[in-house]
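Deliverable D5.2: sample structural annotation.
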Amino acid sequence: MSRIIRNLDAISKKNVALAGGKGASLGEMMHAGIPVPPGFVVLTAAFDRFLDEAKLSEELDAILDHEVNREEMQTVDFASEKIQGLIRAAEMPKDIAAAIIENFKKLGAKYVAVRSSATAEDSSTAAWAGQLESYLNTTEETLLENVQKCWASLFTPRAIFYRVEKGMHGKKISVAVIVQEMIESEFSGIAFSVHPVTEDRNQIIIEAAFGLGEAIVSGQITPDSYVVEKTPRRIIDKKITVQTRGLYRATNSNGNEWRELSEGEGRKPTLSDEQTMELAELGLKIEKHYGAPQDIEWAYATSPEPVEGEKGRFYIVQSRPITTLNHEKSIE
């Protein structure tokens, strides 16, 4: 079982080959005391065995080696469609499927996020953000299908082209799949532990919006923005936008839906000053743990069983190195 699946709290940054970059990072943060939603990882060994038992490995290599020409984008698209079709159509080994369902039931969550985690991702000079797929609000009914879709997403057109651009063509890359309790976000967003534009190492930038963070990541809304100075620790700038809508879990399906916000709701700052500072402290803790500037995805939700005086809490759903900075500068 441990060769197929491992809980996030049993994974660390040393396990990139097993859990992929994203899975290893989430497990590492759990060990560091960062609040991460509970979950488990379908390890790369499961994907590798799936390919072997379905006798797909040689066929996929042949398509990538002989049918992809980086100068002709249509060849990348064609190869991607062909490979993903083969992976989605193949049968998942029964013991792997059973182990995934068993661990899902142990998790005790009705909805989970199913996310791809490649073994060659999120280094200090490269990031696969947006290359592979994630499936939110997944139920037991769609879980196995979405795991298989995550496997297939190792070969999206963007992922294939990225691999070629980064000189990874021919290098063995595998993919793990994270299955994580879905956080019902009241608001969520992104935080950069170093200003990504000015590269000011003494500033943390936080972007926040009502609902799910995918609305920000996809660029479909303009979030509130907060700038926190590290020394002395204080908020030095806020840009509050009028948010007319938020992305939330759909009430009648497993997908997401846009909900209109009243003018009163939309004009409110997403974060209070207290919450802004709490999130900044979390960002600093993550940066200090990794010893490098971090690009962090976060969510805030009311606790299902709040302790006295606790209205809700922040969860970190991803952290990766910021790859666009001048690396000659160091963290103060």
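Annotation notes: The chain has a mean pLDDT of 87. Residues 187-321 form a domain with the D-amino Acid Aminotransferase; Chain A, domain 1 fold (CATH 3.30.470.20).
The annotation will be released with the project's public dataset once the embargo ends.
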